[in-house]
Write a structure and sequence with these properties.
Helix content is about 15%, strand content about 50%. The protein is α+β, with helices and mostly antiparallel strands. About 25% of the residues are buried.
Length: about 290
């Protein structure tokens, strides 16, 4: 029997910390069966262009619920429900080329927002492993057909528009980010371990993460994550930078209560380079049902 989890739109509550307490020996993804976890993920990216600062804000809201226990213990079946995407871009004055057609950036984002709004409340199915990593996603083609019918457009346009947000590759990156800290083995209080991840939704970006236990409380563990970020080949990186993340996670479930990341990245271009700052804020609240 597999474990079903429903994912629906929800908000976040930041968990507080207390004095150091119990030693922890393990940390795995094990959501409780009678709890609804509401996630809110916000990403703000700022960079400097020749015509001024660019700011792009992306939000993704969903909730997580366990419906059945998985007796094998290695994979969990979920449902992403009531999806919602929000986006706000500032000072993107230049156009963009889509399918060899030059489009005004404002018109492009208005169309993206309309398709995202038509998708709100729809659903997908996913399978995650015990490290919170995506194994498989189902239902994207059907979702695209439903949204296309609402928008009087083609499923291909819907998939192209939403590919950076809810394609299988994009959803895989979301869960890699949410659970980048989960170890593969045992933990020792005040110890550290390394997790290497590759985000693929925009371009392959490597992140080597050194995770250190900052403190352990009765029900929570606080983690300090330092990341080395790169894209390209060794000696010829076109993107490089560093990241710092602080995480408060539930000791029993492995689910983050809060996750705050700041990444400082340099992107090399043909005519120079551009500095980018990315701030990611994840908050999670839980409620019995």
């Amino acid at each position: 029997m597999k474990q079903w989890i429903w994912i629906a739109l929800g908000g976040f509550t930041l968990a507080g910390c207390s004095d150091k307490e119990d030693q922890i020996t393990s940390l795995t993804f094990d959501p409780a069966g009678s709890v609804n976890y509401s996630f809110k993920v916000s990403t703000v990216t700022t960079e400097q262009a020749s015509w001024g600062p660019l700011t792009d804000t992306l939000s993704l809201n969903f909730s997580l619920r366990t419906l059945e226990k998985d007796t094998s213990g290695d994979k969990l079946l979920f449902r992403i429900d009531k999806l919602e995407i929000g986006r706000d871009s500032f000072n993107y004055s230049k156009g963009v080329t889509i399918n060899n057609v030059r489009q005004d950036m404002k018109a492009f984002y208005n169309r993206t927002d309309s398709i995202a709004d038509a998708m709100t409340g729809d659903s997908l199915k996913i399978i995650l492993d015990r490290n919170g990593a995506l194994v498989r996603m189902e239902g994207y083609d059907s979702l695209a057909k439903r949204v296309a019918q609402k928008m009087a457009c083609t499923p291909s346009e819907v998939k192209n528009t939403l590919s950076d947000y809810i394609s299988e590759t994009a959803i895989r990156d979301v869960f890699l980010r949410l659970f980048c800290y989960l170890p593969s083995g045992m933990l020792i209080k005040n110890g550290s371990w390394v997790n290497n991840t590759v985000y693929k939704s925009l371009a392959p970006i490597k992140s080597s993460n050194m995770i250190t236990i900052d403190s352990v409380m009765k029900n929570e563990i606080v983690l300090d994550v330092r990341s080395e970020i790169s894209a390209g080949t060794e000696g010829d990186y076109y993107l490089s930078g560093k990241g710092k993340t602080m995480i408060v996670a539930d000791k029993r479930t492995g689910i983050p209560k809060s996750l705050k990341t700041v990444e400082k990245i340099e992107v090399k271009l043909s005519n120079g380079s551009r500095n980018q700052i990315k701030m990611i804020d994840v908050n999670v609240s839980s409620q019995d049902f």
